[in-house]
């Protein structure tokens, strides 16, 4: 397992699947139950105090949609409907929107994301599968890597903006007079800079979006609350054992739920919504997260 952010840990869903099969433990997950669990999501409601807030805030957090390989527009529609039903003040998207060939049209996904409703806006960050879909790297099924991947990323950023989604790459926005939303580039394929993402926050409450929780031990200072995805909670969890593999250099440390980063920064790692590598989950249901945040 590499310690370099530019070299992702050698963890793939294929390895997870082979390991489970080799141990004879994947019978339930490989059946219809595993597919059904992947398609059945819930709304997880969490509460936390956020220093700097002057009034309560409702934030919906959706991550790891993985539109393309196993996820269609219909599933995304259900997730968007669930988020809108919670009447959030702000919607936050944790990356890995895309899991497509490099020449795929994202229009059906964008049409669904354009339906998100939040008075303070919709903000997101790119994840590692987004970079694969741009052509930065290319597993065989995606088609060849593209020399123009950066231009495709720029085009996608504009397309998402047209759909109402502001993508943050080591930058932030004042979503409200007492709230700063910052977002960092992908930990594996970008050059994430949390300090730059939070520059300009001043005395405002801060929310920091990072697709990958592996950035948490490297935060240069305290953030009010960090929100991450990427791990899927392991996607396949087993009784008594938990997740056989987590795509993180820190193993189980940031698998899911409430964790703590550097400088005592509280962070929430979502199990995400889509699937990657294999189209099933086990004991690890997808989630739309609703965070009810109050002044500290």
Automatic annotation (TrEMBL):
Which terms in the Gene Ontology molecular function aspect does this entry carry? metal ion binding; UDP-2,3-diacylglucosamine hydrolase activity
Q: Name one GO cellular component term.
A: membrane
Q: Which domain of life is it from?
A: Bacteria
- Report the InterPro entries cross-referenced here: Calcineurin-like_PHP, Metallo-depent_PP-like, Metallophosphoesterase_sf, TAT_signal
Classification via Pfam families: Metallophos
What biological-process terms (Gene Ontology) are attached? lipid A biosynthetic process
Domain (Calcineurin-like phosphoesterase) spans: 58-233
What UniProt keywords apply to this chain's record, in alphabetical order? Hydrolase, Metal-binding
**What is this protein's name?**
Calcineurin-like phosphoesterase domain-containing protein
Q: Which organism is it from?
A: Deinococcus budaensis
